ShKT domain-containing protein (Mytilus coruscus), 398 residues
Amino acid sequence: MSKTTVEVNGNGLESLGKEFKIKFYDADGNFTDTGFVGYSDNSSHRSRRASLRPGKATSTDSCDHVRGVPSELRSSSVMKPHGIAIFYQKYTEAYGIPILSSWNVNDDALKRACYITRFLFADNYAVRNSFYQRSGRSAVIGVHEGTTSIPEHSHMDPSFWDKRARGLGATDSAPVSTGGEENLLCMKNDRYHSEDIYLHEFSHGVANLGARYGISGWFRRLESQYNTAKQQGLWANTYSMSSSAEYFAEGVQSFFNVNDYSATPNGIHGPINTKEKLSTYDPALYQLIEEVWPCHNTYLKRCVVSRAQEQQQNIRTNCDGSTGGGDGGGSCKDIHPNCHSWATTGECSRNPAYMLVNCKHSCNTCSGQGVVALHVQTAVSSVMIGLEGENVIETQVT
Ligand SMILES: [Zn+2]
């Protein structure tokens, strides 16, 4: 039997909603895990192991097709805990993970949110499937809607939250990651224009519902590394040191080269804003992020690509070596870490004797490889123009 103690998660509130963070200890008093329960309603004694959605994550997507919400998802026996609310009238999906919004949102915003979903859950089947089975989903907040317009967050105080945040990360009790339409579509009136808020918020969901359950000991190691980094004075005077959740989410932004930059830490951002800098500045955090995203796919930035370009990107999948629900099999692996870069320069056809044996995944030679891996490779380098260097004075609240 385990015993629990409860602590209010102060600085991380924005990512947790109105929730308590609970630490679990074993019989000897050793910290074992972290969980979350609701705060403002009376259902705060939920089981940490939420009941699961039936079925498994798929290996396909239909991001280019926005339509109505499938009726079965309205059921609480399918999507936990309460089914998909009637507020949601638009739907698309990646791996069976719903992307939702009201009527008020432009289809392109859902397509972009779907791309982010497809991208973030490509690499690791266990993470993807865990998010799926915990009824994880993504919802777009319309540009004229508020954070608390989202039904799962409607119990929160609008006078506070609608001003403070334009997105929240998924949790066990409210398994939806949200973000603003204006951020997804790179609108000029976005107060977080220089940041990819959706990626940040979604990475909270990936951690809370995906990696925490899908990768053995990962959440505990993240907490431990956060404490170590703090003791070492890393990330001083930045938002990363708010909590282990923000440490991870800010790290993810840097890992995918979409973080903001400040030459001197300004309380929010600092100079470590790229994958390369992250790998040398905080290699332990880099490694934790790499466990979730071992494929090293290139993230397409929202302000410089079209939705069609996103759809065409060849995103490598299941680099964790899993079967990924039948898209390649356990032997469908790259043996050498340079396989991907070799494949992108034409080595699969130039040197097939080696490549087709040792770089099966990168050369797409796996039988039954998933649909997401079969998108036509497109030259993305020309559109990878960074947003770094733009000035942001706004206080980051996500
Ligand atoms: Zn955050």
